[in-house]
Every structure is written in structure tokens, then in C-alpha cells.
Amino acid sequence: MNWIPLLLLPLIALIFLIPPLFQKRVEKWDVPEARIEALEEKKRMLVVAIREFDFDFDTGKLSLEDYEEQRARFKTELAEVIRKLKEEEGRVG
Amino acid sequence: MLELGSVALMTLYPVCLFGIIASFLGGYQKNPRFVRAGERAVLFSCILVVLATAVLSIQFLQDDFSNAYVASHSNVDLHTIYKFTALWSGQEGSLLFWNCLLAMYAFAAVVSQRNRNRDLMPYVNGILLVSIFFFTTLHLFVVNPFRPLMLEQGTVLSTFTPIDGKGLNPLLQHPVMAIHPPMLYLGFVGFVVPFAFAMAALMVRSPGARWIRVTRRWTLFAWFFLTCGILLGARWAYVELGWGGYWAWDPVENASLMPWLTGTAFLHSVMIQEKKGMLKVWNVSLVIATYFLCLFGTFLTRSGVVSSVHAFAQSPIGGYFITFIVIGVGLSIWLVRSRREYLQSETVLDSVASRESSFLFNNLILLAACFAVLWGTLFPVISEAIQGEKISVGPPFFNKVNVPIGLFLLFLTGVGPLLAWRKTSWSGVRRNFTWPTITAVVVALALVAAGIREFYSVVCFALSMFVTTSIWMEFYRGARARMRQLGENLLAALLNLVGRNTRRYGGYIVHIGMVLLFAGIAGTAFNEDTRAELQAGESLTIGKYNVRVNEIQSGETPNYEYARAEVMVQSGDRTLRTMYPERRFYLASEQPSSEVEIHTTLREDLYVVYASAGPNGGAVLQVYRNPLVRWLWIGGLVVAFGTLITFLPNQKKVLA
């Protein structure tokens, strides 16, 4: 077999790989702010927890007393997280 | 063709190296130019490996025996489908196939995530490329799949193309082998994606639940294929190896089971991190363990360190693998330790009577099982290193340790759904456990009354009923809640229940499948077998079956010679079927093989093997009666179905 056509592969590799290194327009690097990300995560966690908790109550796994006590705790926690999240978002702009 | 394959692999090497440097540098400097170049390196790597794999496949299909690998694993008369599957029948091809799947996973990860997780992706790309680079090193320097066949003439070596190849190992000439290795590899290789995201999350100091959410489907995908691969391997062993069983605690089987156990633990424990922000170190450790156990199993079975009936490829790759694993594990542990301040739990366990604590127990049990399997598998190596004598550990050890562990795991499978997240009151525990406990006790008493005395089997069936009842109650209570709140009928309520929380209810279906698997395994306690040389017209009896040899035949095809018995199976006066168990001798590879015949029902399998020609000219038949085996395969299908449900996105309005 003629090896010359096979040199095309490394050549194509070069043509494909190198251009991004010299591109003029640089995209914006959109990295989540660490504290906001952590709070968003906590908020998501609490929303899911409340949803699961409601479902566990509906299916009879929890007593009314446990349900009301824990749910109130979750809601307080969630309200606190949302407040902090708004503060952080306001700070970052 | 050989040159094209070689050039593709040689080009892949610098492309990977460039991509690794560009990706890590891009991530570290937050430089989009380098990051994009790294992404392109991943994409181009995939194209190159797929090209190399395609070239090797074409060489097999065209009987191009100038390639030493093709000449060693195929022959002209081999069926076309097996010419294709011969690709992964030996070391060189199977590692190329592994790298091909790895590069395809990397390609899919880049395409799907490059614009979503910009901070993680450069490191993900870098880690994926390091894996591809490692396998490419093996291709180029240790087990080259594009090595020309050479002939030594005196002191001169020249290329040589034989008229025919040596043929494929007969044991691999089975339809299951067309899908079992790809599925197993898709499972093994697939865990690289969650591993890469976990490491990337640690590198950017953001090891929260984001990497878990991003990789949830990737992990399930890998777990799904690993599960299917293991079960198909068991099926292949059952129908092809001719020893009447499907699992022998062979090192290759164990090598696939270990990452499955840690992967299963990981699938459960990530839910605790997602819901409570706990177990961050644990989850990262589990994904590291799972990924490296996939590689370790490959090292174990391909390096010749342990021998196996499933190992069809051995070569000097062991040193490379162990070096890669040791460095990889070392770096991973260092990364986890250096980021431990970001891995603190956000909450604590509220109560022992909670779903998360049952998941924790489940994790510990799965890890205990993994350790027992690892210890038993490595014991011959350890004993040889210490005492200079290889002491094999057989099925009795594995069964003695793993059967109680498995049963406890089955029990926890039933306990989990009965407990609420966070905390279940003791009155709730009593209420939820009543029916499952009653049904389990009734089943145990009924079995004992029926004369069954095998302790573990009775416990297994009782626990199976416990789990089934608890899961059924979950479906029923969930549907009842919907019917009460939304006025839906039972069917609509059930469908919507599953549709609006596919993860939870798909998981329950998987658990039902596991119950069926356990029931199939429990049947092993009642296996029986017999062996006899039978002349035409003679018969033997096993269980309710009468097995009669009508005729003994022999013949030849272009691929093999065969001796076969025509066997009529009767139960009482009723003829069930005629079977043709066969003993083959493959001409190209000069290897024998048994083709077993199985009469299968939901109750039991009648498994007939033509073991050999007898000294008196008859057929030596080995006949097994294996109760409940079919439930194992049905269980596997249910597990697969349940896993597919968990893949589905939830319907919009979520109640559950």
C-alpha cells in the first residue's frame, strides 16, 4: 500500500485540532459562583425533600405528628436558604 | 488495510497527548481556546479509534490473514457473524474494542455536556483522554492489533499470508457471544464517565450533588449494561460450557461482579447525597472503587495472574495495567484527601428507622460482599506469594460467605420501601412491616410443611415474599393516594405514579427482578444430576423425566466434525420433546466443544450434555435437573425493564 495517502490522517488531525488555539473571538467563561451554586443545591435538596416527605405521609409511612413537625422544619430551612440566595444574587448582581 | 489501522493508532497517540495538555491547561487557566482544542482532541480521538476498529472488522470479514491477529482468531469457513465477533475474541482486538467504546463514551460526554458544565468539562476531557491514551499505549507497544504475520526463513523475517486462519475458539462460537462482550464492555467502560466527572468536581472544588445529577443517567447506563453483560455471561456459561450451572465463582465472573456490587452501592448512596448532602466522601470513593475495579478485573483475568474458563486472552499487559491502576488510585486518593474540606456532610442522619439508614446498611453489605469476592479471587495469588503454594478457593467458600450476605441484602431490599426518608415513627414501622412479615412467615411455614428443609432456600423464598409484599404495598399505597386526591382509576393512578417518579418506581421494578433472580438462585439447592453411557434404545431416569436415546449419529460440516445423540424425553406417558445434544470437534482450531440441549419450563430445566463417546460405543450422557433456573433469566429481563423505566424523564407535574 502507498503510505502517502496515509499521511493525510495526521494532516487532518492538525487541521482539525489547531484552529481553536488561534481563534480571535473568545467565548465567555460562564462558571457558577461557588456560594450561589451551593445554595441552589441546598434549595433543590429541600424542595425534593418536602415533596418526598409529603408523598411518604400520603402513603401512610408517617404519623401526623412527625409529618407536621418535620415539614415545618423543612419550610423554615427552605425560607432561610431562599433568603440567603437572594442576598448572594443581589451581591453578585 | 494494516497500514491504515496502524496509522490511525499512531495518529491517535499524539492527538491524545495534545488533548490532555490542552484540556488540563485550559481548565487550570480558564482558557477557552485550549479547552475547545481539548474537546476537538476527544472528538478526533473517537474518529481515529472507530476507524481502527472498522479496519480490523473489515479485515476479519475479508479473511485478510496477513494480519496476525485475524489469522489467529478466524478462518475462511467461520460463519460471518462470528467473523465479526472474532474482533473481541483475543487480547489485541478486545482492547481495541474497549478503547473504541471508551472513545465513543468520551465523544458522547463532550457533545452532550460541553456547553452545560463549562468548569468541569476540561478536566473531564483530560481524564477521558488519559484513559484513551493508556489503551493506545497498549495497542502500540504491547498488543498491536495490526501486526503483520511474519514468517521466519533462516535469519530473514518476511511477511506471510496463509491460505486459512487458525479459527475461532469453539466456545466463542455462540450467539450470546455476539452481545455478551459488548454489553459487558459497555458496562465496564461506562463507569469512566461518572469517575471523570467526580474527579473533575474535586479538581474544581465543587463536589456537591451537581456531578451526581449530571452523571445519573450515565451511571445507570453503565450499570444496565454491566448487569445485562453479567447475566448474558451466565447464560452463555449455562448453555455453552456444559457443566449444568451458570455461575462458578470463576475469577472472570468475580471480576465483573465486584464493580457491579460497588456500582450498585453507588447508585443507592448517591440518593442520600442528593437528598441530604451526606456521604460525599463515600460516594466519590465508591465511584473511584467501581472504575478501578473494572480495570482491576481486566488486569486480573488478562495478565494470567489467575486462570479462568472465561479468559480467552492473555498477554504481558499485567504490568501496564497494575501501574496505571496504582497511579490512578494514588492520585484519586490524594485528590479526595486534599479536597476533604469541601466534602463535609451538610446534615446528619435523623434516625436509624429511615430510608437513608437502610441505604447505608445496603451499602455496607454490598461492600462486604465485594470484599469477600475480592479476597476469594485473590487468595490463590496471596497464598502463592506468602507460602509459595497456590491454594484455590472454590465455590464452597464463596457460597458460605455470600449466601448469608445476599439474603441480608434481599431483606434490606424489602425494608427500604417501608421506611420514610429522614425518620419513621415506631408506630409507622409496626404498621408498615405487618403485612410483609405475615406473608413471609406464611411462605416459610408452607415450605416447611411441604417438606422443604434447606434452611437458606426457605429463608430466601420467605424474604422474597417479604420484598414482593413491601413493593406491592408501595405501588398500592401510591396509587390509592392518587385515586383519593385526583379521582383517577387504579390503572391510570398506577401509570401516572410510575410516570411521575420513574426513578423510584423503576427502582422498585428492578427490585422485583432481583427477587426473581434470587428465587432462581435458590432453586440451585434442589439440583440433581446423573451420568450414564447409553446405547440406542436405552434410557435413564431423573426426577419425573425418562431420557431415552433413539439413535447415535456422527457427521461433518466444513467447520467441525460432530457426534450427536437423538434423545427422546418423556414425563410419564407423555413425550415432551426430542433433543440432539452434540459433541463437536472444530477442525481449524482442533478443539472439542459440547452443544447442550435444554428442555426448559417455569418449574425446572432438564439439561442434557453429550459428554463423550463411551468405551462400549454408546453415548455418555450427563443429565441435570435444575429447578427454577428460568426465573433467573426472567428476573434479568425484569431488572433490565425496570432500569429502562428509571431512564425515562419524569412527567411534568411531580406528585411523588
Which tags fit this structure?
heterodimer; A: 93 residues; mainly alpha; 69% helix; B: 656 residues; alpha+beta; six-stranded antiparallel sheet; four-stranded antiparallel sheet; 19 helices; globular
- What is the share of helical residues of chain A? 55-70%
Sheet with the most strands, sense and barrel status of chain B: 6 strands, antiparallel
Number of helices of chain A: 3
Strand content of chain B: 5-15%
The low-confidence runs of chain A, each spanning 5 or more residues with pLDDT under 50, are none
Return the average pLDDT of chain B rounded to an integer. Answer: 89
Taken from the alpha-carbon principal axes, the silhouette of chain A is elongated
Distance between the termini of chain B: 56 Å
Number of beta strands of chain B: 12
The residue fraction in helices of chain B comes out at: 55-70%
* Count, helices of chain B: 19
Determine the most extensive contact between two protein chains: A-B, 44 and 55 residues
Structural class of chain A: mainly alpha
Structural class of chain B: alpha+beta
Radius of gyration of chain B: 27 Å
Give the biggest sheet of chain A: none
Q: Give the percentage of residues in beta strands of chain A.
A: under 5%
